[in-house]
Specification:
The chain is of the alpha+beta class and about 210 residues long. Strands 5-8-3-2-1-10-9-4-7-6 form a ten-stranded antiparallel beta sheet, sandwiched between helices. The protein has one domain: Immunoglobulin-like. Helices cover about 25% and strands about 35% of the residues.
């Protein structure tokens, strides 16, 4: 029993160490449109990681898809964000502010409609299919926070829908494009929580 318990302890600690320092939440980006054949493909793997900064919050967008795809536009709707402080482009990406079009494509289909906050968007420079976030690539946007705002406030707003994040994905294998939003189910903490729960249950058996 003690050996099994020790295994769970090591598992939880190992999992925690695998998460980048300062990282609190990672949200999957889920497609809500159906313009082509790949809107529900299991090979689409898109997410945004939310991390801490001094008076700032960082949003890192990853594309780990197994099919052709490019995150061409990124949009934010309200929240405690003051404004974009910087854009850190990973290898292969090149972005500018604001995005064109100004609003998240098909964002009006959401309830309530997604309304992009003025200047809270970026998109890939031409050609966006090349300069956007393609499989294996990333881009990071750092926002200043409204006075007194904290990362915890941002997380709460993401989980309750006060702050929403949308992306436009283009260059899918059939040439279609889709829109997606961050879903209010943080995967990073949930994963740690499951590991910790397993540990607690195991200890009760001892």
């Amino acid at each position: 029993m003690r050996t099994e318990s020790s295994f769970f302890v090591v598992s939880v600690l190992t999992l925690a160490l695998c998460i980048p320092a300062g990282s609190l939440q990672a949200y999957p980006l889920e497609i809500f449109t159906s313009n082509g054949d790949y809107y529900d493909s299991i090979d689409l793997d898109l997410d945004v990681e939310v991390t801490n900064g001094a008076g700032q919050v960082k949003f890192t967008f990853h594309n780990e898809s197994l099919i052709d795809s490019s995150i061409a536009g990124i949009y934010f709707d309200d929240g405690s964000l003051l404004g974009i402080a910087s854009i850190l482009e990973g290898p292969g990406t090149l972005f500018s502010q604001p995005a064109t079009p100004n609003d998240l494509p098909a964002g009006n289909l959401l309830d309530p409609p997604f309304v992009t906050t003025d200047q809270f968007s970026i998109d890939g420079d031409p050609p966006p299919s090349h300069n956007g976030v393609n499989p294996g690539e990333w881009v990071q946007i750092t926002f200043d926070l409204i006075g007194g705002g904290t990362l915890g406030d941002v997380i709460d707003e993401l989980n309750t829908g006060v702050l929403r994040i949308g992306i436009h994905v283009i260059d899918l294998p059939d040439g279609s494009s889709e829109s997606a939003v961050a879903v209010p189910e943080p995967t990073t903490i949930a994963l740690l929580g499951l590991a910790a729960l397993a540990l607690l249950r195991n200890r009760k058996k001892l």
